[in-house]
Specification:
With about 325 residues, the protein is of the alpha/beta class. The protein has 13 helices and eight strands.
């Protein structure tokens, strides 16, 4: 029986497939750790701690999970290894925050009172930032939303060209001034276009450079200022895209970008190509920023709205 069976069958299958490498690595080793044991003791918890760290959950988050399970053992006086799967799911889900179940299942919905809804996307080069923007545009467009894209990563010709290709593929306008132009000017024109055409959402790409953090901070601040000339409370969402396959490097990137700008949502990509899917838990817990989207494959529909219950159920359930 599923932990909180709320996803469609197709999305659940996509999630299970996307997390397969992490699941296989985790459960093959967990099975060996508890083989022949009937109760959860210190040895089992030590093994579980090692497995969670190996899955890139992170040391601090792992210790918090282990402490929660220890408290359950102490409270119940006896916890069997057959119950460990359920307890692990419950404690990790609790750690991911008090997300409303229905809201966490929102299918690429947009706030009705914010139009256009302005999303500024940040992240280093190579994490799948532009692809994530394209997939988001496709999902919103498929649901009848008017979408505008802004090609604000003007330091890479490939990023500008890639976003234009996504715009053509999806059928949405892309505002671009080409390479080596002012990103803030692109953002200004993108938001103006969105206001003029009464768009539902405008998504603005930005340059992914960490090695010049002060310049990056100044650049992002300038983009926000020009956006606010049209919509004072915008951007409504600053979405940080991280590559889940890089494990703890993604944590370092999150740390740097949260210093540079006010990130309030996360998208974690490429979880299908890694055994480090636990990094989603560690990042969410450490930074207290909601994971909004996860990428579990190459197809457009493999970018999913994150549901912590379904994620935990899939991650900590053995493969069929």
């Amino acid at each position: 029986m599923a932990f909180f069976g709320l996803f469609s069958k197709e999305k659940k299958e996509s999630l299970n497939k996307g997390l397969e490498k992490t699941k296989e690595s985790f459960f093959s080793r967990l099975g060996k750790a508890i083989l022949g044991k009937s109760k959860v003791d210190e040895e089992v918890l030590d093994q579980l701690e090692e497995l969670l760290i190996a899955a890139d959950v992170g040391v601090e988050t792992t210790l918090t999970i282990i402490k929660r399970i220890q408290d359950r053992v102490a409270k119940d006086h006896y916890l069997t290894t057959s119950e460990l799967d359920r307890i692990l799911k419950e404690e990790v889900a609790a750690l991911l925050g008090a997300t409303d179940v229905e809201q966490s299942n929102a299918d690429f919905e947009l706030p009705a009172d914010k139009k256009p809804y302005v999303v500024m996307v940040v992240g280093v080069n190579g994490v799948g930032k532009t692809t994530t923007i394209g997939k988001l545009a496709a999902q919103f467009h498929k649901r009848g939303k008017k979408v505008v894209l802004g090609a604000g990563d003007t330091f890479r010709a490939a990023a500008v060209d890639q976003l234009k290709l996504w715009g053509d593929r999806v059928g949405v306008p892309v505002i671009s001034h080409g390479m080596n132009t002012d990103p803030a000017s692109v953002a200004f024109d993108a938001v103006k276009k969105a206001v003029d055409m009464q768009a539902d959402v405008v998504i603005i790409d930005t340059a992914g450079r960490l090695h010049t953090k002060i310049n990056l901070m100044n650049e992002l601040s300038k983009i926000k200022r020009v956006i606010q000339k049209f919509i004072p409370e915008a951007p409504h969402e600053i979405l940080l895209v991280l590559d889940g396959s890089t494990g703890q490097n993604a944590v370092i990137q999150a740390r740097e970008f949260t210093k540079a700008t006010e990130v309030n949502a996360l998208a974690i990509t490429k979880l299908d190509g890694t055994a480090k899917g636990g990094v989603v838990i560690g990042i969410s817990h450490e930074f207290n920023i909601p994971v909004k989207y996860i990428g579990v494959g190459e197809k457009i529909d493999d970018l999913q709205v994150f549901n912590k219950y379904e994620f935990v159920d899939s991650l900590f359930s053995p493969s069929k």
